[in-house]
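INSTRUCTION: Work out how this chain folds

Token vocabulary: learned, describes local backbone geometry

RECORD BEGINS BELOW THIS LINE
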Amino acid sequence: MKTGIPNSREIERKFLLKRLPEKLNRSRRYIIAQGYLATEPAGRHVRLRKKGKTASLTFKVGRGAHREEREIKLSPKQFAALWPATAGRRLRKLRHEIPWKDLLIEIDIYRGRHSGLVVAEVEFPDRATCRRFKPPSWFGREVTGEKRYSNVRLANE
């Protein structure tokens, strides 16, 4: 996710995992509480997220590997004021961040009603790097763009 940039392009791919990587517990990790203030079938949504102690509001447009994204940092007070509006459209997950070949792999282990679901996302600096990416052996099937695995869909289930 590109923070601090008011208008940016997100280029990422999402995968299921065959298995968790070795040394996962040595990685940086965060509890994420995520809820949606608004979602549209056209692929536009407004997300509220608390990752560790950091809170943000993000507007995303589009589906698949390439999407427009705008993010605004929120104070704890702002987050607390908006959070109740996400009732019924929330999810919780534990995120591990793993550096890998000049990229960052984010492994999300879902909690609550989606317990057991584990996905990995990789964000890329450009389309060429995205196309050339060869997943590590512990990655499973690619699910980029599959609605079933989108956070918006999971939060609304």
In short: The first helix runs from residue 76 to 82.
